[in-house]
């Protein structure tokens, strides 16, 4: 396929219509810059580049400022920053999100990958700084996609139930969601959920997507900060090794995942498992530190076909048929 000149690459000023998802804890300057250097759009996720958690909002913002500068030292290509939006459309913008977006703009970031609910005020602030907005509703619906487009999103992400991380509340697969959302809006739509090889990329375009948004497959690359034993576990695992550890999260089997999975099917359990996973450190213990006893390994359902640990450039060439 010829990618140059497509709407998406022109909007984002990148070479290829491929965006690396802003995975929590499992991104850093090295991975993000490698994706951008290879022609895609690398995106810094929450806590990118760090191994410890801070609850100080100012420190969180300054940590990200430092990581942005590290990316700048490694590439002059565009890259993005994740913005989490948990409020409703017309809710006032909280101080942390305001400062997060402002800091990014101060550092010259113009690509914002927002996840959650489309926000009139957040989108307005990003646009005020000349930003480009790639928005992903956690559970895609026609109404949510159209609302985000109306509020100014430049690109939208259609997420299938096949994805890793926090999955949509509706069990609709990528093949169902993508064409529905493509037909509902006029801006470019990215497909995400279970895309791990060239066949998945071709399928996404056949469904009407103008690009792909990929997380899990970038975890198993040489530049990824994920622990080596986690990469090996993904390579040697398959769909049958996965289980629900909460109503909205899956994991490859680990000792911690087994404990959470048992609670998930226990009808007498009153513990909010998504909150419990967050309290335990989210993806940090398992995926960043490689501590399988205390952590989970969240990936998409298509991991059976992940059998190698290439460089980011080699992976992008393979995904796009450039090798």
Describe this structure in words.
The protein has 323 residues and is α/β, with parallel strands linked by helices. The protein folds into two domains: 7-223 and 306-320, TIM Barrel (Alpha-Beta Barrel); 228-298, no CATH class. 39% of the residues lie in helices and 14% in strands. It has 14 helices and ten strands. It has helices spanning 7-12, 29-37, 57-74, 95-106, 120-128, 142-151, 174-184, 198-206, 216-219, 228-236, 255-264, 273-279, 284-288, 312-319; strands spanning 18-20, 42-44, 79-85, 111-116, 132-136, 155-159, 189-192, 211-214, 242-246, 249-252. An eight-stranded parallel sheet has the order 1-8-7-6-5-4-3-2. A two-stranded antiparallel ribbon has the order 9-10. Helix 3 links the parallel strand 2 (42-44) and strand 3 (79-85). Helix 2 runs parallel beside helix 3 and helix 3 packs parallel to helix 4. It is globular, with a radius of gyration of 18 Å. The chain starts with 6 loop residues before the first helix and ends with a helix. One of its GO terms (molecular function) is nitronate monooxygenase activity. Keywords: Dioxygenase, Flavoprotein, FMN, Oxidoreductase. This is 2-nitropropane dioxygenase. InterPro entries: Aldolase_TIM (IPR013785), NMO (IPR004136). It comes from Pseudomonas fluorescens.
Kindly state the percentage of residues in helix: 25-40%
H/E series, N to C?
HEHEHEHEHEHEHEHEHHEEHHHH
The major beta sheet can be summarized as: 8 strands, parallel
Which topology of the largest domain does CATH recognise? Answer: TIM Barrel
Q: What is the rounded distance between the termini?
A: 13 Å
CATH class category name of the largest domain: Alpha Beta
Overall mean pLDDT stands at 96
* Structural category: alpha/beta
β content, as a range? 5-15%
What is the total number of structural domains? 2
**Low-confidence parts, pLDDT < 50 over ≥5 residues?**
none
- Going by CATH, what is the homologous superfamily of the largest domain? Aldolase class I
**Strand numbers in spatial order across the main sheet:** 1-8-7-6-5-4-3-2
Rg, Å, rounded = 18 Å
Number of strands: 10
Helical run tally: 14
What characteristic shape results from the CA principal axes? globular
- Corresponding CATH architecture of the largest domain: Alpha-Beta Barrel
């Amino acid at each position: 396929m010829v990618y140059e000149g497509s709407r998406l690459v022109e909007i984002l000023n990148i070479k290829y219509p491929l965006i690396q998802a802003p995975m929590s804890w499992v991104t850093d300057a090295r991975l993000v810059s490698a994706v951008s250097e290879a022609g895609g759009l690398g995106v810094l996720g929450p806590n990118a580049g760090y191994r410890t958690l801070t609850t100080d909002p100012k420190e969180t913002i300054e940590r990200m400022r430092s990581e942005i500068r590290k990316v700048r030292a490694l590439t002059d290509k565009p890259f993005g920053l994740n913005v989490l939006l948990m409020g409703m459309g017309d809710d006032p913008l909280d101080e942390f999100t305001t400062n997060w977006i402002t800091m990014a703009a101060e550092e010259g970031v113009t690509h914002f990958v927002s996840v959650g609910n489309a926000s009139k005020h957040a989108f307005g602030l990003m646009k005020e700084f000349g930003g480009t907005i790639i928005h992903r509703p956690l559970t895609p619906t026609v109404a949510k996609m159209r609302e985000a487009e109306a509020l100014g999103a430049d690109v939208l992400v259609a997420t299938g139930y096949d994805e890793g991380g926090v999955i949509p509340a509706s069990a609709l697969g990528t093949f169902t969601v993508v064409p529905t959302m493509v037909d509902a809006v006029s801006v470019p739509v990215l497909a995400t959920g279970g895309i791990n090889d060239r066949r998945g990329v071709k399928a996404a375009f056949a469904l009407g997507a103008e690009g792909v948004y990929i997380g899990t497959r970038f975890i198993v690359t040489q530049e990824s900060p994920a622990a080596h034993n986690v990469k090996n576990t993904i390579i040697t695992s398959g769909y049958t090794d996965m289980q629900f550890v909460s109503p909205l999260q899956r994991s490859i089997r680990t000792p911690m995942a087994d404990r959470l999975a048992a609670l998930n099917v226990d009808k007498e359990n009153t513990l909010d498992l998504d909150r419990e996973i967050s309290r335990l450190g989210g993806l940090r213990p398992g995926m960043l530190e490689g501590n399988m006893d205390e952590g989970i390994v969240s990936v998409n359902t298509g991991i059976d076909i992940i059998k190698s640990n290439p460089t980011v450039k080699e992976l992008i060439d393979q995904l796009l048929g450039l090798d």
